Structure formats: C-alpha cells, structure tokens
C-alpha cells in the first residue's frame, strides 16, 4: 500500500481519502480552515451553523459525535467549494459517524433507533400515527 507523504509531525496515512489516524472533526477543521484561508465565522455563515456552537466543537467544549448529518454535509460542501482537499468520508469519519448510504436508509435507521428507545405504549402511538399519515397520503 502506498502512503501519502508525511509532513513533519503528521502521521503517515494511506494514499486514499481517509483521515489521518486519530484526527477528529475539530482537528480536521482546524487543519483545513487555514489552508482554505477562511475563518470559523465564515464556515459558520456558509453552513448555517451558529458560530458559538461551531467554536465549541473546535475548542473541545462540546463533543462532535452529535453533529447532525445535514451539518456534516454542509461542512463538506463549504470546504470543497473553498478548494479544501477533503471528502465527505473524511468529514464523517472524523466526527465518529458512519458515512451515510442512501438518505432513505439513513432515515429508516434513525427512525428505528428512536422507535426502539420508546416505551411500548408510545411505540403503538407511533405506529398509529404512521398509519394515519399513510392513509392521508393515499387519499391525497
């Protein structure tokens, strides 16, 4: 396997699109922002993420494992638009999240996770609600 050239202090990594070993989302963004000559505030504006929230991720005051999927996509889009050498896969891996497949599969998995966390009575309510929504959709 070939490896990307190592810069001083930077670990060798496979020459594919994975993040350097141990690089979390904060480290990745802190590395890429200067390369793109953009600031945290510009990234916040470009992605619609509140600056204080983004800054808390980057300073370690707030974890990044609960960053919404849409936010990760917007971060990847903004960085790519600014010319950063980064992929969605790197963004998702750095946040500790699986790289999403098709959006419908991800929604189904999310819904199932929420459903399983509910007590039985609320699960029944969710099923009734979903059935009512489906009936309305068929009528429309």
Describe this structure in words.
The protein is mostly helical. The protein has 2 domains: 25-94, 434 Repressor (Amino-terminal Domain), CATH 1.10.260; 103-139. The protein has helices spanning 25-36, 40-47, 51-58, 69-81, 88-94, 103-117, 120-139. 16% of the residues are buried. Residues 1-18 have low confidence and may be disordered. It comes from Streptomyces gottesmaniae. It holds the Pfam family HTH_26. Residues 30-79 form the HTH cro/C1-type domain. Residues 9-23 have a biased composition (Basic and acidic residues).
Task: Give the helix level as a range of percent.
Answer: 55-70%
The total of helices stands at: 7
Structural class: mainly alpha
End-to-end distance, in Å? Answer: 56 Å
Unreliable segments (pLDDT under 50, ≥5 consecutive)? Answer: 1-18
Report the principal-axis shape. elongated
Number of strands: 0
Largest sheet: number of strands, sense, barrel closure: none
Q: What is the radius of gyration computed over CA atoms, rounded to a whole number of angstroms?
A: 19 Å
Q: Which fold name is given in CATH as the topology of the largest domain?
A: 434 Repressor (Amino-terminal Domain)
Reported CATH architecture of the largest domain: Orthogonal Bundle
- Write the element-wise H/E pattern from the N-terminal end onward: HHHHHHH
């Amino acid at each position: 396997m070939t490896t990307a050239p190592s810069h001083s202090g930077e670990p060798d990594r496979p020459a594919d699109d994975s993040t350097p070993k141990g690089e979390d989302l904060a480290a990745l963004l802190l590395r890429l922002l200067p390369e793109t000559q953009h600031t945290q505030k510009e990234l916040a504006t470009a992605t619609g993420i509140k600056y204080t929230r983004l800054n808390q991720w980057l300073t370690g005051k707030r974890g990044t494992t609960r960053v919404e999927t849409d936010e990760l996509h917007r971060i990847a889009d903004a960085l790519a638009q600014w010319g950063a050498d980064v992929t969605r896969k790197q963004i998702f891996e750095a946040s500790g999240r699986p790289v999403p497949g098709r959006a419908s599969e991800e929604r189904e998995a999310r819904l199932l996770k929420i459903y399983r966390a509910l007590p039985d009575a609320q699960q029944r309510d969710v099923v009734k609600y979903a059935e009512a929504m489906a009936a309305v959709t068929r009528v429309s």
